[in-house]
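CHAIN AND CONFORMATION:
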Amino acid sequence: FAAASIREIAARAGCVEGTIYTYFKGKRDLFDTVLAEFYDRLIADIAPRFESIRGTRDRLSFLIARHLQVALDEPGIGQMIMREARSPEPYFGSKLHALNRRYSRFLQRTLAEGIERGELRADLDPVMARDLVFGGAEHWVWNERGRQRAVDPAKAADAMVSLLLE
């Protein structure tokens, strides 16, 4: 992202540079729009299914499997998000940070409700657990794909949830 020029982006999109500026204020606006559309689609897919699932184990399995599926289906988006979150630009307070917060609310809610119902440890730090789940899942997919192993998101999610709960 940092090295790409609007001219290069326009060329890859099959348009002229001015067309990009017709729709976006600049490269950052284009980047934020792409990510917002990605997160909007993802959240719209997750929300209705999430509401129909009961119990911490089942919700965790669903959310982790869905997160793993995203990592498999959209590796470029995941790499872009990770690169941008670690860039010199401030992450906290950014558009990307707000989008990640919207997405992670499903897991945060699952963890909080699991603690309330006694299905998770009372002393569990939900923020740390969220980061370990998302970061661990992404690392695991990266490792499996790098070794060219087949990944079954549902099976992997069930194994990860067992590690968390047992």
User: Anything to note?
Assistant: Residues 27-52 form the longest helix (26 residues). Residues 29 and 93 are 15 Å apart (CA to CA). The helical segments are 6-13, 17-23, 27-52, 56-73, 75-85, 95-116, 126-146, 153-165.
